[in-house]
Amino acid sequence: MDNPNPVNEVESPAGHIQSLEKGLRILDEIIEAPAPLKLADIVRRFNMDRASAFRFLQTLEHRGFLRKDATTKEYDVGGRIYYWASRLREKTRLIDSFHEQLQRLASITQQTTHLGLFVNDRVLLADFALSDSIISIRHCIGVLEPLYSSAVGKAVLAFLPVERREALINNIEFVRLTGNTIMNADALRIDLAITRDRGYAIDANETHEGLTCIARPIFGKDGVPVASIGITCVTALVSAEPGRFEHLIQSIQAMGSEITTNLAI
């Protein structure tokens, strides 16, 4: 049954472009729809006048994001979206190849494991695997992890070539997330130097209170980090068991070496 109510309006941040937002919401609606939609569907769904709705649809069709059936006048996903999807599949092959190792690492450590992809000078949380433990920490895929506080972020940043690393550090806007968050470039440089020496990064309650993360970089064939794998655990629990933290470090180091070796083949 069609939803008779317009799409709920969500308060937008200052500086947003209303027309672009509306167009993206229309595109999202057509992508999510189980069947092609007509102009009347968009008018009703977004509580718009027909002329405005038609202009949005016509623009999206012109750019290849939508395809209009000449007979039924229905709009469906266009070729440009499928092109984007194929490009994204190329990027997500890395995620698919890592998932088995993430799941294995979660089983070995009985902790939640996660993957950060280094994309466009940012670390994107791309995948995670849950353990069988009663306490499991569920991550949100698609989140951009802070380079200065998260273990997956620092694991990548620490091992980048010096010029690239410094350029990224100089552009960081430090925001306090917890009482332990690193808040300036000099302190971050010291932390990154320690990370390089030991081979892995630690987020000790720096991004989320009560959570400790360990991460190790994954290197591409050129020796530059392309991703990082991490383990998330409850600080109080991992600290209470002697030898537990060392076991996590050994496990993530071994798995990281295995993945890097596989990428080099």
Walk me through this protein's architecture:
With 265 residues, the chain is α+β, with helices and mostly antiparallel strands. Helix content is 47%, strand content 18%. The chain contains 9 helices and 8 strands. The strands form 2 sheets. The chain has a 6-stranded antiparallel beta sheet. The chain has a two-stranded antiparallel sheet with strand order 1-2. Helix 2 packs across helix 3 (50-62) and helix 4 (79-109) packs across helix 9. The termini are far apart. 31% of the residues are buried. The model is unreliable at 1-10 (pLDDT under 50).
Shape: elongated
First and last CA, distance: 52 Å
Number of helices: 9
Assigned CATH class of the largest domain: Alpha Beta
Mean of residue pLDDT?
86
* CA-atom Rg in angstroms: 23 Å
| CATH homologous superfamily heading of the largest domain | GAF domain
CATH topology value of the largest domain: Beta-Lactamase
Quick summary of this structure?
The protein has 265 residues and is of the alpha+beta class.
Salient structural properties:
6-stranded antiparallel sheet; single chain; 2 domains; 9 helices; Beta-Lactamase; two-stranded antiparallel ribbon; 265 residues; Arc Repressor Mutant, subunit A; elongated; 18% strand; 47% helix; alpha+beta
